[in-house]
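Posted in: Structural Biology > Protein-Ligand Complexes

Title: Requesting predicted complex, zinc ion in pocket

I'd be grateful if someone could produce the 3D structure tokens for the following input. Sequence and ligand are given below.
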Amino acid sequence: MRLYSTLSRRLEELPAPPGPIRMYFCGPTVYQRAHIGNARPFLLGMWLRNWLRHRGYEVTLVHNITDVDDKILAAPGPSAEVAARATEWYLQDIGDFKLGLPDALPKATETVPQIVSFIERLVEGGHAYAVEGDVYFRVVRDPEYGRLSGQRPDQVEEQEPNPLKEDPRDFALWKSNKPGEDLAWDSPWGRGRPGWHIECSVMAEEELGQEFEIHGGGLDLVFPHHENELAQSSALGHRFAHIWTHNGMLEFGGEKMSKSLGNDVSIRNVLDTWGREVALLFFMTAHWRKPIDFTDATLEQAKAQWQSFSQAIYENKPARPTVGWEAFEAALDDDFNTPEALAVLHEWRRASELELLNRGLGIFGLGFVPDTPPEEVQALARERAEARAQSNWQRSDELREEIAALGWVVQDGADGWTLVPT
Ligand SMILES: [Zn+2]
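-- Reply #1 --
Done. Output follows.
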């Protein structure tokens, strides 16, 4: 199994099963309903976990909740309540993909003592310094700074401008409490709160250890977030993550507003409007490293693909020989290529290899056992078949509509009819 790593800029071979494979995927900052773009790293993490477990690995997936941040402090209402409510929304929303949950969902606010002690060690080692209640990481002490984002240390752009810093490149580990900010903890540098980057270094190491296999997140996190996580942990001599997986971003195809979603592109609205199957299938259509076009047209295409799978499973035709499971494995073992895997699923659909199709869909949370249509619906379908046999097309059409009103579509084929849910 190989995965592309941003750090080495090449495909990296995973250790042989059972591993372990320890994974940390950056989670959301919780201040509002999560954007559909937040679903991509979550789904990639969960699908990878499924696939690696299927391949015989012991896998742990950690997905953090950033519940202290500028955006939370700026949101109206008490910050702790804003974060608690948005955390609950996020857990509901990702839960509704019905893929289960990550093995651990640590919260930054529940890790503050460990964060303070991590910063103390950085200060003791000369990797960080305090100024007026803030603590900054001393970038000049890290000769390899920029290794993840591919920047030369002397050309790194300025972060968090503050004239009190020794160096414009230095970034905050601890931020002093400002008037009006209602989230703060005591520390050796006074009351304040942790910076975003240090939270992830500490939560990852608390859950997975000083060294682990995979660190994931959106491509927008490479710099400064992940560059800084790596610098902080490396400063204490920790190897930190071996492979860095960065998923491509959602693009909106130049559409100002989606017809189906309006301007609410939250996970919630996408699930409510399109359903979990279409949303999951949509994310499978692009390779995880590539951007993905999120428009009504691409969602419609995903819906059509999902309906074609569902229909094949309901039709339950006799199978004909085609490619085996190893074709699916080859696609996913090679940098988790979901578009290739999707092509194999369609091959199985065309060949009515339904057991393989359902097993493959199951890796992505899409496998299912077809429902038996209720007796009432079956009786209407039989009546319709009789009407057709007597060329009574008007009655046949009426019955089709009655069947549709009960939530089923009747499809005619060479060997009779099939009922498929709408
Ligand atoms: Zn993070």
